[in-house]
Amino acid sequence: MSLDLLTYLFIGGSFALYIGIAIWARAGSTKEFYVAGGGVPPVANGMATAADWMSAASFISLAGIVSFIGRDGSAYLMGWTGGYVLLAMLLAPYLRKFGKFTVPDFIGDRYYSNTARTIAVICTIVISFTYVAGQMRGVGIVFSRYLHVDINTGVVIGMAIVFFYAVLGGMKGITYTQVAQYCVLILAFMVPAIFLSMQVTGHFLPQTGLGATLDNGQSVLATLNELHRELGFAEYTDGRKTTIDLFFLTAALMCGTAGLPHVIVRFFTVPRVKDARISAGWALVFIAILYTTVPAVAGFGRVNLIQTINGQDNQGTEYTAMPDWFKNWENSGLIAWADKNGDGKVYYQSGNAFNGKPAFAEERGEFGQRITTNASDSANEVYVDRDIMVLANPEIAQLPAWVIALVAAGAVAAALSTAAGLLLVISTSISHDLMKKTINPNITDKQELMYARLAAIVAIIIAGYFGINPPGFVAQVVALAFGLAASSVFPAIILGIFNARMNTQGAVAGMLVGLVSTMAYIIYFKFMGGTADQWFLGISPEGFGTVGMILNVIVAFIVSAMTPPPPAEIQQIVEDIRIPRGAGAAHAH
User: Cβ contacts of residue 274 below 8 Å, gap of 6+?
Assistant: First the structure.
């Protein structure tokens, strides 16, 4: 059976499954639309949380970015997994006990202010749109390769699928769809990882394979270091980032993770606070399966990539023609080469092959390469988009066609599961927190549900636009969203739970300072031509969320100390949510 037919079967079959579940679990009330009726079993909720969590950034881009930047990629691994632990231990149980299922709802009630609620809505929408842009681009990349359409058309197809089950099923449909999506994506990630580990090292488990000794007598990492030195790159285990930038990026990802609204809402879909803790534990197990495999996939993929595009197949056999996998991906525009020295072979080394991304002409060159019109003066002849690594790995390693098709279905599942969760958060923020709680409290349940669905439709259209015009690689775009979450809503939530003295004025001032400073920094350095030598203390835009978070906390404390304390009943609520149900004062006997 051909790869194209297998891909259509795997992706088409998974779409049919998702849509069937959405129809079966169609939301009939706002409670079902927002929190799936609050009756999801903990294990199922753990799977759904993991799928919501492991987005296109985790599935497609994380191994790609680790593959290319080596040690510096550890910030993403530590930040995202550490942040989930922070969320599960410090936030989820208390928010669940407080009883508010959206971040703006918690902030609005805790800080007894519609102004605080509105600012939290704005923060939530900005964070979610930044995040969802990465997911839609991920969908576009998958479809561009496997459905033979351009990336923009792929984004539109993804929009149509998400529209159907997110708008129709709400959180109830999304939850059970995400259980199915987790099963698909984890199989799709682990099966080729095991194949790669067996092929490269002979180890069944990728986690142990990364430290194995290869036929050349060196470990995988030592081999990568040697290959990098030969090609003029920095050693794989050496980082380019400064220690302070690596620390701030890790902290921004960690705290941003704990403030992500689409993950927090998952802890309200279970019946009890105890179930929220149990589902958090299960989610961590399900997440760890993928995250502990990422470094191995990145390492194996990098070895295979370097060997195959420098004149060898993955068994070390010399050849002169470009391998088939390269030609397949070349048509997507995500990998390209310019034969600058006219020898018919790719010369891959440190430096930019093109001025910006490659621009293609219609004709092809003497050796079948797509002719580019913007080659740079560097000796490097190849451009590789980081986001193709996980998707191209099975083809580079010459794995069976069904494995390649499975990876395609898994990548789509990862992107769509998170996109749906984010779009639901956006629609909930607008319909529940803005319309129902702020603008018009008298609307009926049916009207609120209508507003939620209309908001989801508008959100899908805007998300599609950002997917077509993204500001960077998938993982980079997502990192910006985490920085915005860390600098705005995370401090407000933490202080709202653990500081009874924090008042409206302090929280509002802190959120505004954190959000505005971080957004200004990101916009200047990502869109207005700011250069790395201008970074504050050498901190990258992806890591600046930590600085914004520190500013948020400082301003919040100063303003709070200079203004009246919260009402006594609010302070009592804050004290109560940290006491387990049934706990009482200790008595002497």
Answer: none
- Per-domain residue ranges for the chain? 3-301+399-577, 302-392
Element (H or E) spanning 370, and its range? Answer: strand 370-372
Instruction: Give the contacts of 28 (CB within 8 A, at least 6 positions apart).
Output: none
SS3 364: strand
pLDDT digits (tens, 9 = 90+) for 484-519: 888 988 899 889 888 888 998 999 999 899 989 998
CB 88 within 8 A of CB 282: no
pLDDT in tens, 222-233: 888 887 887 777
Query: Model pTM?
Result: 0.77
Kindly tell me the sign of the dihedral angle through the C-alpha atoms of 481, 484, 486, 492. negative
CATH topology of domain 3-301+399-577: Sodium/glucose cotransporter (1.20.1730)
Query: Of all residues in the chain, what percent are helix, strand and coil, respectively (each to 5)?
Result: 70, 5, 25
Supply the DSSP string of 546-557, one letter for each residue: HHHHHHHHHHHH
CA dist list (Å): 43 to 144, 182, 187, 479: 35, 12, 18, 28
For residues 280 and 95, the answer to whether their CB atoms sit within 8 Å is no
Asked if residues 425 and 126 have their Cβ atoms less than 8 Å apart, the reply is no
